[in-house]
Structures are given as C-alpha cells and as structure tokens.
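Regression test attached.
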Amino acid sequence: MEDHQHQLVPSEMALRVKALESLLVEKGLVDPAALDALVDTYENRVGPRNGARVVARAWTDPAYKERLLRDAPGAIAELGFLSMQGEHMVVLENTPRVHNMVVCTLCSCYPWPVLGLPPVWYKSAPYRSRAVIDPRGVLREFGVEIAPEVEVRVWDSTAELRYIVLPERPAGTEAATEDALADLVTRDSMIGVALVRLA
Amino acid sequence: MEDHQHQLVPSEMALRVKALESLLVEKGLVDPAALDALVDTYENRVGPRNGARVVARAWTDPAYKERLLRDAPGAIAELGFLSMQGEHMVVLENTPRVHNMVVCTLCSCYPWPVLGLPPVWYKSAPYRSRAVIDPRGVLREFGVEIAPEVEVRVWDSTAELRYIVLPERPAGTEAATEDALADLVTRDSMIGVALVRLA
Amino acid sequence: MNGIHDMGGMHGFGPVQAEKDEPVFHEPWEGRTHALNRALGAWKKWNIDTGRFGIEQIPPAEYLRMSYYEKWFTRNVELLVKTGLVSRAELESGRPEPGSALRTPPLRAGGVAAIALDRGIASSVEPAVTPLFAIGERVRAKNIQPVGHTRLPRYARGKTGEIHLDHGVYAFPDTSAHGLGENRQHVYSVRFAARELWGHEAPARDSVHIDLWDEYLERA
Amino acid sequence: MNGIHDMGGMHGFGPVQAEKDEPVFHEPWEGRTHALNRALGAWKKWNIDTGRFGIEQIPPAEYLRMSYYEKWFTRNVELLVKTGLVSRAELESGRPEPGSALRTPPLRAGGVAAIALDRGIASSVEPAVTPLFAIGERVRAKNIQPVGHTRLPRYARGKTGEIHLDHGVYAFPDTSAHGLGENRQHVYSVRFAARELWGHEAPARDSVHIDLWDEYLERA
C-alpha cells in the first residue's frame, strides 16, 4: 500500500519540502551541506553491506562470533560500523531449531548503522500488523517455509534496542572467503524474513 | 470527521448510485417504487418520535412501564412501532444510581423502528472508539456530567439485540400530558448521551 | 477479523462531533443507497453477517476515509457481483448483458411498511438449543483471533465477566457470514467491569455490557 | 495512546508487498526530509519520544493514507512550530519574519559521519538504577490505557511473560515524550508465548519478545 503512495504525491510533497528547507536554511536552522552529506551517507555509505560484513566475519571467525553474540555493539564497532558509545544492538542467532525475525509494530525502528534505512515494506502496515500474530504466514509470502518443529521468535523493537539476525551459513560454503560470503548475505536475511542461499 | 466527508464526494457518489440503481431496475432486481417508499419511510415515518411516545407512555403508565422493561418488543408493538415477530429489543432504565448509554463499536447497530436511522456521530469512529473506554468523557462532550457515585453502564450492541434507554423523567413534569412529555424526549436521551430537560 | 472496524478502546479519532438538526440523509444518493440495500436484501442472497463482513473487508485507509453510505454502496456492489446478481461487465457498461433474464423484484412498494418494523432476524425462542451458561455465572471471553467475521471485539478478549441476561438463540456470525451454517446458539449480555477491561484507573463501579455468543465464552 | 500506529495483531492490511531493488529514497524529497529530520534533531528541542508521539498524533485516516516520509514531514512541521523554531507565519510566507535572528546550525557537514554511526540514545550503564525484575522472573504487562505516548503495545497488555534479557537503563517514553522527565529505568526483553498472546491456535513453541520498561510490568 505505502509503496504506491509516494507515486501519487511527489510533486506536491517535493514543493512543500523544498519550501521548508529554504526557510530553515534562511533562518540558519540547518546547513544545506549537512543535508547533502546526510543524503549521501544513507544513499551510499550506510547500508546492508555493513551488516553482511559482520555476518560473514561471524561465520568465519568463531571468536568474533562469540564476541558478537555477547556484545554486539563492541563487535560491530571493531569493523567500524558503529561508534563506540553507540547504538544498543543485539544479534540473534538463527539455528536449525530457532528462527528469529525482527519487526517494529509501533513505528519503524531498525538498525540503521548496520542495515541502512528500512525498506518500505518493513515500515508498512501489512508487515507491522502481521509479523507478531502470523509470522509464519508472513515468512511464507517471502518464500520461506519454517518447519513446525522450529521455534519462531519474533522480536518487536519497542525500545531503543536494535536487532539484527545472524542467519544460518548455507551448506556448500565451507571453502568460501569472507568477502564471497558477505556477498551472499541479503538485507532480508538479517531482518529474518529470508534465508541465505547460494547464488 | 465523517460528517464532512459526504460534502466532498456527493457528485461522484450521486452518479455512481444513480448508475447502479438504473442497472438494477433494468434487470428487474429492484422496484423503484419500493425504493421511493423506503426513502419516504425513513425520512418521514420512522424516527425518534416513535421512541419518545414509548418513553412518555412508560412515564405515565406504571403497568406499561413494567411490561416495557420485561418485554420491550411486546410493549413497543402495542404502540404499533414494531411488528409482532419483530425486533429483539431491550429497554434500559436510567435511575438516580445508574446511567445507561448505547454504542455499537463494531459497526452501527441501532434500534431503527423506534429511533429511525442513527445520526452520523453515532456511526463515527470517535464515538465508537471512545464510548466503551471513556464514556464519561464522551458524555461530558454532550454536556452531561455524571456524578462519580452513579454507575455508568455502556451497552455495546454486538449482536441482534437493540437497546434503547428509558431516560429519567425530569422533575416539574408531574402535571404534563403524555403528548407534552413525548415532546421533551430527545433522540440523544434514548441513546443515553443526554438527559431529558424541561424545554 | 481484527479489522479497523473493531475500534472499541482506540484513541486518536478526536471528539464526537454531533451535527445540529441533522437530516436523515445528507444527500439524495444516501437515501437511495439505504433503500437499495434493503431492497436487495429481500433477494436473500446474503445475510446480515455476510453484509457486515463485506464492510469489514474494505481496506482500512478506505474504511476510515469513506462516508457511511459510501461503505454500504461499496459493499453492495461487491456482494452483487459475488452472488451473481450482477456481472462486472454490467457494472462497467451500466446495462444488462444481452439476453439476461428480466427478474421480478421480491420487494414491492406495498411490502415496505412491514419491513420497516422488522429487520427480519429470526426468532430467538428455540427450547431445543440448550444454553451453556447460566445467569450470574462467571465467564471469560476467549482469546481467539478469527481471520473471518466475528462479533467478539478485541477489547473483551481474555477478559472475565458475568452473564447478565440470556437473550435466547441466534445464528453464530463466525460461521453464518461465511456460508458455514447458522450454528444457532444462545447469546448473552455479559457484564464486564470497566476495571477488568481497562485497568485500575477506570471508575470502580462502571461496566460495559457486551452481547456474546456461547462459542465466544468459557467458564472463568 | 491506543492509536492507529499500535497495529500489532491487526488483520486486513493485505499481503506484505516487497519491492525489488528498492532505492533508499524513491524521490529526492524523501532524502531531504530524512536529512532535515536529523539536522533538526541536532537542536535537541525534542527527543525521540516526542518525535514518535508527533507521528502518532496524525489523525488515523491520514496516518494510513500518508507515505512514510510524508508523516515525518508533517510531524516535523508541527514540532518546529510547537518549539518556536519556526512560526506559522513563516511557514505560510516561506520567509523568516522580519527582524528574526539568524541562527547557527548545530550540525555541519563535518559532523554527519559521526552521527550516522550513533543515534544518540544515552548510554544504558547506570548502576544506581536498580532493576525491579530479574532474568527468568514471570511478569505481567500491565493493563493500562495511557492517552499519551507509550511503548507498551496493546496486544501485550494483561499478558504474562518471562524476563529474558535485562537491556540496562533508558528514559521512560511515557514521561519523556511529554517533558515530564526521563524517569530512567530498566528495559527488558520479555518473552511472551505466542499462545499467551493469541490463544491456543498459535504454534506451541513460537514466541514474541517485546522490550518493556520496569513501569510497564508487574509480578505475575
């Protein structure tokens, strides 16, 4: 639903946002260069590749994985994706017995530094409403069938904690390099609505 | 909110309804004379005056009141406002200790034969959402302050039962005729969001 | 379904706005829509529960945007197509399909006075259907999440109350709406303390009475 | 508030629609709106809870109709006026009021890289604040109906779960959003069985973990 809305309103919204920005710049309330840098940061510098590097490192370095599960902010900061004082983050490990999935039913909380900005579907009413009451149905729509004996744990991000899922490493990747593994890790797998599969 | 909406859409809706009616008449699915009679019935024949007559009779005839509280459909049918097989209806008596108020949170259930069609506010989201969680706040917006020691009973019409409130007879009407009393009884007092006051 | 229509207990819709000297219909098309609904109902192609479920299926953003009779109109168009009384092609062209039979309306002007006094819900006296609960009994509204039509509002689920009245026997909406049978059973007025529903800040003596079917309840 | 934003457990919004190769921003104005939000946040005239409550106050029909960044924009305009950073007259004219002071933005381009890695939620290590609950303890989410901002979703209220993690100490949204103090307290990940939340038809072993503050909980 929401991903059609932005098609309907761009010109009016574009004008309104431009007018507000001009006013704020003229009043000295915002620095247009800071706005440029912010747009550039989220379009080009911060995104799910950060998270994929964390996952790939955890898959290949057991000591790192242990630190990641115990102290996610510290371990993520090691790779430079989080300031030291930073984000409160928890990494949820998927196993053959547990599948984790993340939602924010009340708004759109999401681990920006490691995954970038959330996709529209994550912020949409269908996902927010159904992830907690029918996670297996939602996963099915993403093409993921979770066996009945596997426990599905949904994490509703109602506070300042941010969750990322450490997906299962796919079989057949024993010889892959960390870089090659990072290429396999999708954003959706770190939200918990996809499995990592060989390309 | 809703009572502004109908201002925005009349011409498009008028066209769509007219087109549907024409089609249904041409197919022999509806009789336009029946539609005319239905509109006339609800605009001119059925309405809160029916309920007001019931209330005034109950105020002036203790035996009728007793029948009304025990078997509302039967007592209402005595006055000709209900078919004998009719509507399942319950009359709720307001007293110095109990104030009753009726809502339909799930849609718009309302005792048509005695009150006519519901007003827009009764069908609106503000009333439906708040009547059950904050009835005293809603009553205050209608200008009714219920003392803390009075019990407020809200009746959510979730099934096929229809409720009307028998309001308290105002003091100073001891000498009034049944007709004069009926003139005092408002629709809102029979929904339970108003008290009956001397004009 | 846990739809937008199930709004008891929500905040944020603003104050109740009563209109002074409100007309029965604000526009002629509202009156026609109301009348069409009654006249089409006489075909008995759908029941009251099907009709309610039809409105509940309007997408939430539309449900909140639309005026009341716009929702009725939208629902009726869907039901006309679904029951085959009208085809999509006819709706688009506005004309009966060539060769389609001319029907005879079941409701004529002469029949209107009678139905105005009777909404046609079948009688509730059925001694053969035994009530599962007695007046005064403590009951809990089940914590269920039907995806189809239901008349058990969310705000009551899992809450404990007391059987106040036994209203007699009615069709069960959760099956009746979906053509799964009337499944007739007793309906009760169940009294829930406001504090049970909303917590200890609610006034101590206030209550909400909700009409609930046998299958919605369990012994508390 | 029991607003439309609190939609966990609702039906009727349709399937999740994922967009293939979705861009970070669909239109340039979305990127500018996101950036403006961060840049204005640097004035520290409001906090994250105030900001969330601002979005929750958008009327429900608008909330569902608006796109995500349209909601942000609407909220920010309201906050700018409410905090006095911008006047209604300025919004209407699009120009600073005559004689209004020229300010110096607290966030410059050079500061952007740092905040991109830090959302600025204050540290959670505060040994002076004692947790009210211990890991493994059974707790019940209170049945409360705050009319202001809250982060206790309706679907959890009155439900029993177990303290799974203690996340440390955070500002309490219900007071923080309204300028009533940070009221810092422990936040826990509380595990609720899916069956406790949704009834016995839910899968037996599934669960929902919700992050909840001390004041939302009571001993079960």
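Expected vs. actual: identical. Chain C has eight helices and five strands.
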